[in-house]
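Practice problem: predict the structure.
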Amino acid sequence: MKPYIYGNRNHIHIIDIQKTVPMLNDACNFIEKIVSKGGIYYSWN
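Answer:
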């Protein structure tokens, strides 16, 4: 996780958007591929 942390303020990590957004896009594309082939995607919060 450390490579994606830009810094911290008041003990809260600030993520590096330039590194995080491409990985989030990859994850979304992966999920889209699974669902388009009839797979099931579950998400828990």
